[in-house]
Amino acid sequence: MHEWTLQEAARKVRDKEISSRELTRALLDRIERINPKINAYVTVLHDKAMAEATARDETQAKGEALGVLHGVPLGLKDIFCTRGIRTTCGSRILSYFLPPYDAAVAEKVAASGAVLLGKHNMDEFAMGSSTETSHFGPTRNPWATGRIPGGSSGGTAAAVAAGLCYAGVGTDTGGSIRQPASLCGVVGVKPTYGRVSRYGMIAFASSLDQGGPVTRTVPDAAMMLGVIAGHDRRDSTSVDLPVPDYPAAAERPVKGMKVGLPREYFEVEGLDPAVRGAMEKALDALVVQGAQAVEISLPHTSFAVATYYIIAPAEASSNLARYDGVRYGYRAKVAGGLIEMMSRTRAEGFGAEVKRRIMIGTYALSAGYYEAYYGKAQKVRTLIRRDFDAAFAKVDAILTPTSPTPAFRLGEKTGDPLTMYLSDIFTIPCNLAGIPGISVPCGMSAEGLPIGAQLLAGHFREETLFTAAAAIERALPHPPVAPLEGA
Predict the structure, then answer these.
(1) Cα–Cα distance for residue pair 220/469, rounded to 1 Å
(2) Is there a contact between 230 and 242 (Cβ–Cβ < 8 Å)?
(3) Rounded CA separation 222/416 (Å)
(4) Which of 94, 56, 58, 87 is nearest to 72 (CA)?
(5) From 421's CA, which of 75, 148, 251, 291 has a CA 20 to 30 Å away?
(6) Its pTM surpasses 0.90
């Protein structure tokens, strides 16, 4: 039953083919067996999940109204605040933090009737592309446990790929949903900035962060986005627009759709031949079903990574200033005074990658360099957004690789941050422009590692993404879960 889709699981519980309690117990048993091998969960809520499942069954027995995900076990990236449940953000500095409130996403998932199994591992404060910077140890790719699952939502992608939950919600700041989805052979959606509330989502870079679903199929992703999307007055960046019928969009034909192929994305040095071949198959799948391929240009693509690694660290240095050992979180045990206590707390509580980005951001925001770095980066960001605006005047969607390579080996790039940063070269422009993106499986490498295709669309055009991604999924079916040894 762990291979069921989200929609299948929801239907079977609603039709009383299986109880929520039976389904939840089965997945908790699977987590107990499999999680030690891949470290996808930081916190597993055994007792709470079973109590929630029992309550869901009682609600159904009384004939009360049921939510769209009634009784289905899900997981959340450990970046979403959950009231009274440890929320760590993958960091020592929050290793014992118990939030006093729920994030908007957690509220919506609960209101849908889902059962929360636990919190997924992640790169510390979402800073990383491999889920190796977590204070709780790296997550392993369930397709090959010696390889990374991607990041920062690697725990969520690995949990979904391994059949340890039917869906999860991650966050995407520069590709942190789409890149791990690609490397783990699942579907990941980064919605338009403002589509999903950021209330209670621990901030990395506030103008880039966005929550989104990770699932095993495109219709499941459409279903999940329908649950978590919507206006929230508690988030000043939340957009007050109606939420469309996303699952219906996944059933529409692509006939007549114009799909753009940006030449800059296919000329990148280091693009793996297997990825290029998979992209050709994805494009063929769309064309055979009636879509039209159009070559386009996104001329400022080459500046995206440099722009991102000024803006994101700058915002992070500001957001992470709150972790000082005074109000909440970890506090250094030995210190001679307030200043030393703050200094020691941050030195001991943050990992190397977080410290690196704080220092980069603080430098970029300093009085003598603000305009030279941060100001210029914001201007380039505007140019990147204009590139997309011009492209979407000609095409409905854009097709690119999600990642330049399949999953690399654990430890392979941890000593070279610049090489690691280039793992997100295809996903970063989407966040800078605030547009939606999706990664859908489209092939396998010779080593048996998943490869994902990325589709991009104009602001609030998620329906277009679901239509195109579903067409690829129908033409290029993918195994429902990773064939984990001993699973």
Answers:
(1) 12
(2) no
(3) 37
(4) 56
(5) 75
(6) yes
